[in-house]
Amino acid sequence: MTRCPSCQITLYHNEEVCPLCRCVTEEVDKREETRLRNLFGESSFYPNVQKRQKILRFILKLVLFVFVVSEAIMVSINYMTKVSYPWSLITGLSLLYIYLFLVYWVTYDSGFAAKVGLQLMITMVFLLMIDYSNGMHGWSLQWAIPGIILLGDGLVFFLMILNKSRWQSYLLLLLLMAICSIAILTLYFVGTIQIFIMPLICSGVSCLSAFGAILFGGKRAQHELKRRIHI
Ligand SMILES: [Zn+2]
User: Fold this and answer.
1) What pTM, to 2 d.p., does this model score?
2) What are the tens digits of pLDDT across the range 39-49?
3) From ligand 1's centre to the CA of 9, what distance in Å?
4) Which of 30, 127, 145, 205 is most deeply buried (CB count within 10 A of its CB)?
């Protein structure tokens, strides 16, 4: 039996993640479990939400199909009219951005941390693609994306303070940003980017905050990591 520290609900089937808010659950001790079972009897199953998800998934597929068809048409027009400027690439990227946003709102009606994380990731990918479509000058990797990561670090710090009782739910987000920033810094060493000042700052800030959170987070941090990524 587990318990969600955020929603304060008890879960009878040892769910590791709360079905309502996606927060990592805590174990209920044996004595409390017996007490609850005596008090409320055996559980009924969590209501089936699969039907709603099925419909939403179908809508997403439909949207994707329509977007792919319209983009194909636009690429053809772009090619046939012999306009040298690849405007169809811009429309394609915009459609992709809209689609990712839809996926994000439909799939992740979950915890706040996941939402923030996905939003940051989508923005990073989009910036990279705009840079790429304009001839890949590297500004996205050298300045914009590290800037987004730093912004994310600041946001997480703020959210952790604001949400003291569940600060650990943002731990994975911190780790994710540390990994992204190291990946960008690596690009400097392999010669993909030339200016490393922003990637270096954001790697330093991200890695130190993730390390600090794990080091000082104690049991709660360990528990979060264990349940989230099974280590
Ligand atoms: Zn919950």
Assistant:
1) 0.68
2) 887 776 666 66
3) 7
4) 145
